[in-house]
Amino acid sequence: MVIDTRSMESVEEEAQLGQESEEENSELSDDELQEAFTKGLLKPGMNVLVDKPKKFVNNVEGLKQCLADFRRDLPWVERLDMTNLPAEDIISKAEGKVPSSANGEINADDDFQREMFFYRQAQATVLEALPLLNKYDIATKRPDDYFAEMAKSDQHMQKIRKKLISKQMILEKSEKAKKLREQRKFGKKVQVEVIQKRQREKKAMMSAVKKYQKGMTDKLDFLEGDKKAGKDSSQVSKKAQNKGANAKRKFKDQKFGFGGKKSGKKWNTKESFNDVSSFRAKVAHAKGGKGGKKGKGGKQNKRPGKSVRKKMKGRS
């Protein structure tokens, strides 16, 4: 194709000359107006603005040249233009509905309908353009070792990094402060529990001491409370726990019996009346002292006093 550039150059030169002449005329008119103003020749109503008629230029050669530029027969790789209809609406087709775009009924004021039309048209363009790009060996995917320059500078990214780090440090400090507050609350709770436990142990020890003083028990296990506290209560065998209960049960059985009928238990029977093997005359009549006297001079089964009994228990 041969393009005539002489006509375009002449048009440009004429336009430049016209602009220069207009500037000269304007400059001359300004100078004349200034001189008239200094001489006092200017009067109100003399200066009237006149609209110049617009000059229409019908540059046929330039228009033909532009049209020829548009009609260049270049390969598709150089143009990369696509003209196609939108892709089919699969959902409406499956439901048996006729899409409005197929009938040409598209409401431009409906945002959803308009955007869907653009979306399906772009989808159809991609489906047609990808095979053509692959045909001309044009890569459509970014390689794995692709290196692109960052849109922001390294200094800007360093500022952002410092800001993010400072925010992270502030968050960590706040989290640490929360944990410390929770630990303090938990520490106070544990301290209260320890104090209550000590009070319970002290109360139990005082009650055990009182029982021992009153003679209700002869065990001194409460003195070994610190040693026993160190041991785990789960390690104590059930046999050892039941041992004391069995001994207590035996003592009560021996003292009170095994239940059942209590009335008439001490009544004599014929066999017990005739059985005198356990009878001892000396014990029954308190005999055996010097001279066989009874009373202060004689030997008696005397019960020791309370203080003596306590001393005997303490020795045991």
How would you describe this protein?
By secondary structure, the protein is an all-alpha fold. 59% of the residues lie in helices and 0% in strands. The protein has helices at residues 6-39, 60-70, 76-79, 90-95, 111-135, 154-213, 225-230, 238-256, 270-274, 281-285, 306-315. It starts with 5 loop residues before the first helix and ends with a helix. The relative contact order is 0.03. The model is unreliable at 1-8 and 22-28 (pLDDT under 50).
How are the SSEs ordered, and which strands pair?
Blueprint: H1 6-39, H2 60-70, H3 76-79, H4 90-95, H5 111-135, H6 154-213, H7 225-230, H8 238-256, H9 270-274, H10 281-285, H11 306-315
Briefly say what this structure is.
The chain has eleven helices and no strands. It is mostly helical and 316 residues long.
Give descriptors for this structure.
316 residues, mainly alpha, 11 helices
Distance between the termini: 136 Å
The total count of strands amounts to 0
Compute the average pLDDT. 76
Q: List low-confidence stretches.
A: 1-8, 22-28
State the helix count. 11
> Biggest β-sheet: count, sense, barrel?
none
Element-level helix/strand string = HHHHHHHHHHH
User: Residue share in helices?
Assistant: 55-70%
What shape does the CA trace take?
elongated
**Coarse structural class:** mainly alpha
Strand content: under 5%
Q: Measured on Cα atoms, how large is the radius of gyration?
A: 62 Å
